[in-house]
Design brief:
The complex is a heterodimer of chains A (344) and B (93).
Chain A lengths: L7 E5 L2 H10 L13 H11 L6 E5 L4 E4 H11 L6 H11 L6 H6 L5 E7 L2 H5 L13 H16 L22 E3 L10 H4 L8 E7 L3 E4 L5 H12 L5 H5 L5 E4 L1 H9 L4 H11 L2 E2 L22 E2 L9 E4 L7 E5 L8 E4 L2
Parallel strand pairs in A: 4-5, 8-11
Antiparallel strand pairs in A: 2-3, 4-6, 6-13, 7-12, 8-12, 9-10
Chain B lengths: L2 E5 L23 E5 L3 H18 L5 E4 L10 H8 L2 E3 L5
Parallel strand pairs in B: 2-3, 2-4
Classes of the chains: A alpha+beta (344), B alpha/beta (93).
Amino acid sequence: MTHLASRRLEAPADFRAVFDDMCRRGFTDGLPVIPPTEPLVREMLDAAAMAPDEQIAVVPPEGGPASAEKVAINAVMAGCLPEYFPVVVAALRAVTQPQFNLLGIQTTTNPVGPVLVVNGPVRQRIGVQCGRGCMGPGFRANATIGRALRLVLLNIGGCPPGDVDKAIHGMPGKFAFCFGELEEESPWAPLHVEQGCDARESAVTAFGGQGTQNIYAAMLEPADIVHILADGMRCYGNNGYLRACGSPLIVLSPGHARIFADAGWDKKRIRDELFERTKIPRRNIPSAPQLSVPVYTDYGPDEMCLLCTSPEDIRIVVAGGPEAYHITYIPSFGTTDPCTAKVQ
Amino acid sequence: MQTIQYLDPTSPNTERLRYVPAVSALTGKRIAFLNNGWASFTYIGERMDTVLRSRFGTAPMVTYPIPTSCAPEPGLLDRVREAADAAVVGMAN
């Protein structure tokens, strides 16, 4: 049996006492955790057939080395079942790709946190919710995979709120934000295929998302839906406009997706329309100097400020309940690209 | 009292702890300013340069532009370490 190298800590064998102990040490996100005992950690590692000392990533901002053992400890704490562990590993590999800019996301005053979208057969295998309520409570895989990543970022990345994580308010999605794409109800190619995977593979794509904005678009014509959606996205207080970059994420219900597809709209047409309709003329934004010097600072009054660099940066997935009522818009942090890692 | 044993979830980067020697005095020292472009930080940098030179006799501060919200380009911190004795790296706001 391979040796687990982590320091052993002891606490009274009482649920609340263990939680109190781990809270005092700064190991938790404020919620109760499962004590990561050696048998539970070994079970987690065995599910992914990973050696404890296999290095998965280096986690900013402190550059903590994330061995399989350390990630498994945090996955146990989060409440993950062992079969979730390969998805946790993929999520960590996704967010530690340089283009994701985890250093910036971990330390900014912005409320941004990783948003994980799961694709492929693993969703059904482990019960990742893709349909109704997929971003809310009640689904163990969604909740604990997202939470495991957050605990890794806290405990291995070295990012306690306040000291290093300078988010002014934070946002609830920083506890956990993980859902599956409802590929079976989408008329288009799934996200991981757009990111270069085979449809039969499973993958996690991470976005740097500032939170969710609900857009009620209970209309039946595509042009009307994009009109309302774009109006909700056209918020120059969102980071995308500061740098004209990032990947805004649109989560359409299957109902909305069918309206678009039945009218002959593909994702490209939706993106093109949204990109055009989300442009804001410089004169609409207050001209007083800003602290962070946005890219549009010296634009002429009629020059257009952009939500992102190009239409292709707008990502669209299908998830949630079937009704064509609500769309979820997840604004981008800006200086971050969506990154995908396959589930091994 | 019965106890439960659990594993430490943290993984500190002990290799990162390579300290830059503290400067014992500022006279004649080379000071780097890593400016992320925030207007307030630019102002603070200009004030610090004035105070450091007039009160402590440092060399003129050298500014290195860095991105607003992501890591500096690879190699920049090594160049700063070679070119400066101390650096102003952030506003901690």
